[in-house]
Amino acid sequence: MNMKIGVIKGDGIGPEIVDEAMKVLDRIAEVYGHSLSYTQLLMGGASIDANGVPLTEETLEAARESDAVLMGSIGGDAKTSPWYQLEPSKRPEAGLLALRKGLNLFANLRPAVLYQELKGACPLKEEIADRGFDMMIMRELTGGLYFGERSTREENGVLVARDELTYSETEIRRIAKRGFDIAMKRRKKVTSVDKANVLDSSRLWRKVVEEVAKDYPEVTLEHMLVDNCAMQLVKDPAQFDVILTENMFGDILSDEASMVTGSIGMLASASLNETKFGLYEPSGGSAPDIAGQGIANPIATILSAAMMLKYSFDLDEEAAAIEEAVSAVLKDGYRTIDIMSDGMKQIGTKEMGDRICSYIK
Length: 361
Description:
The chain is of the alpha/beta class and 361 residues long. The chain has helices spanning 14-32, 45-51, 57-64, 92-102, 126-131, 169-184, 200-213, 226-235, 247-260, 299-311, 316-331, 349-358, and strands at residues 2-10, 35-41, 68-73, 107-113, 134-140, 150-155, 158-163, 189-194, 220-225, 242-245, 268-272, 278-282, 334-335, 345-346. The chain is built from twelve helices and 14 strands. The strands form three sheets. A ten-stranded mixed sheet has the order 2-1-3-12-11-4-5-10-8-9, with helices on both faces. A two-stranded antiparallel ribbon has the order 6-7. Catalyzes the oxidation of 3-carboxy-2-hydroxy-4-methylpentanoate (3-isopropylmalate) to 3-carboxy-4-methyl-2-oxopentanoate. The product decarboxylates to 4-methyl-2 oxopentanoate.
């Protein structure tokens, strides 16, 4: 298979961790007989420096012409970076929002897995960590509060801010179908998270999800209010398989889920549209404080590359080979500094990529 991959290395540690993911993809291509072509793209702070804007139309068009896009981390230190002296619409993260919208990336997949080799880093009680967990958070990515109309203006001598939360039946239905499709490949359970006791948008969400569920009789559906879900994630995360939810709730819950795994440096993500196209990136930030030191954890980006093989190219065997190589490296005691513990062997970014490649045979 010939795979055309757009590459956005991004800011901070982004170039370092993306280089290791590309190294692993090259190893997969060598072992399994595929060919890869990369197109280097600029977005975020790097694009501001080069082009004056966080996302150019040329970058967006080049991304559209790719089969998939692999991305590092975007942004910098909000206190010291000149990027954050700009108005919000011109800052690095604005480029990411525009890229998601321009590519119609409505489905965000964020797996949260507790590797047994890393359960000591899990902040939950030992008996909860011993049970382990493996969930997929499905977040609607292009609707809701983040894309609604907003305003701040004076009314009767007082400033009033408004943010509009809007969802259409169509937007809810397409993310729900994607969530149920993924549940069919997992443990066949969907937990739909909303705030239907308060919000009209959540009541519509619940109604449409129940309609979609009728087409998936093998999948168990449960509804859960978002505040309860936040509590259950720390009380009993093993109960979850696929969590299906709207944009803001998904943003918050996926960050919570990432932290109970012990390290955000381990967590991949994918953002998909209605075709096979996807944008694949680590869940963590750009960590400008450690950029260039060769100590960043590349595993989340490498696992994002595995998700790319699975969801954009239907290469399940190759994706599994990467996942198994990551597990093998952890079992052999190799750790980057963020997941280091007593008795383990600390290694840097490049060596972690090299060792994962060595297990792919």
